[in-house]
Amino acid sequence: MDRKTLVAEIFRKKSFLCVGLDTEPARLPVSLQGWPDAVFEFNRQIIDATRDCCVAYKPNLAFYEALGAEGWRIFERTVEYIGKEHFIIADAKRGDIGNTSRLYAQAFFERLGCDAVTVAPYMGEDSVGPFLGFPGKWAIVLALTSNKGSADFQLTRHGDSEEKLYETVLRRAQTWGTPDNMMFVVGATHPEAFAHIRKIVPDHFLLVPGVGSQGGDLAAVCRYGLTPDCGLLVNASRSILYASPGADFAEAARTEALRIQQEMQKWIPT
Amino acid sequence: MDRKTLVAEIFRKKSFLCVGLDTEPARLPVSLQGWPDAVFEFNRQIIDATRDCCVAYKPNLAFYEALGAEGWRIFERTVEYIGKEHFIIADAKRGDIGNTSRLYAQAFFERLGCDAVTVAPYMGEDSVGPFLGFPGKWAIVLALTSNKGSADFQLTRHGDSEEKLYETVLRRAQTWGTPDNMMFVVGATHPEAFAHIRKIVPDHFLLVPGVGSQGGDLAAVCRYGLTPDCGLLVNASRSILYASPGADFAEAARTEALRIQQEMQKWIPT
Description:
2 copies of one chain form a homodimer.
Chain A (H helix, E strand, L loop, with lengths): L2 H11 L3 E5 L16 H13 L5 E4 L1 H5 L2 H15 L4 E8 L3 H14 L4 E4 L5 H4 L9 E7 L20 H9 L8 E5 L7 H7 L5 E3 L9 H8 L6 E5 L1 H4 L7 H17 L5
Parallel strand pairs in A: 1-2, 1-8, 2-3, 3-4, 4-5, 5-6, 6-7, 7-8
């Protein structure tokens, strides 16, 4: 999906919500346990319940790889079920030497039909570059992540200026791609950083995890992160998927997704 | 496989060779094309031809994910076929927030029976820690990679001292684990760095890619990287797998693996 279509979808739906499909077999409602195809069925019902409130879905590969080859097949079927009207992010955090990154890119973009892959920047330009050569496809580079460990390296001074590592990543990586094929991950748990980040990358979309279970503040993210064409995809995973532990999980997921969408609606530039 | 067993195997075989199983369908010999199970069959023959010359195998997940669910199954069968007498590294370069990294660790260690997973350090301690809680299993943290892009961030000054980012990674990450559950990736394309790296991590094993097709120098790696219990796993992938494009690929792979092993034998501490 290209940028123009993504932005149009955001304005049409008045939503920049991304639903994280981090489906854990152990957290499935009792009503689904015993189904031969429980994980896919859970995803299917979550997708049906949230389609009109969100513009993107983000399955995290770890949850599927944990189930082996069968999990990989569930991932493929989930991507296929979502279809072409939503922006699909393979949250895979890949990144390897050039010829290997190229294989990952082909797998996620060409074989699976995902729109974007999250990519770790540690190995530099030739590890990210292979994700940038596919029209309408995106590399989403980790910049400032939502977890505690983001303080270990990302927030330390880097290089000869006063810049921190995540700032260097933002500044350098944006020279490898364009706002049409690259986004950045910035965790909602660092709301204080958004105003500053917008000075470095005024036009790039930011994928923002950490709202919901991880405690990030949507209002602060919007106040400092929004651009005239929105420029944000805000992800919630567990707070939507597991809004109810019971047979009403899909209804509860919809209620939570709608709640977030209504909050977002207030921020959509008019 | 625990450290004691790994070191014993290295001394018994006089080899610290790791064979990288980066199998590309497009590079299979004509004699295998058309086999329904060509990628697995290629791996099987390579493994049989090299078992006695190497102590470790390193399949890179990208090459299997590129084939979808079927590729995942080939990966599983390859790991199973290698068996328990070799150290098996899932070259996956994973790393995510804590609850997600834990799923990757369970998948690779418990479900698949790999001994080690390569892990990217960018997200910090809580992204690496979940790989350290499994007896006899290892996290192999990217420090100084073999590719050109290693210069983009890894070789830049980091923090308030004169330290570079990869040095900070080595220094900090070693406080998260021990030489019994953590190794580091250091590319053979940076031989000048090994003496210095050994000052920071005198006891940890280093996984060294970049010998062979990428042009790294084995002698320089050994001169500066060896420890009394070896402390090195040196990987070659393409130079072994594709030593011959013909039906004699397995014989040619064996010849190349033996050549490297005989070079290594001169360096094994006696």
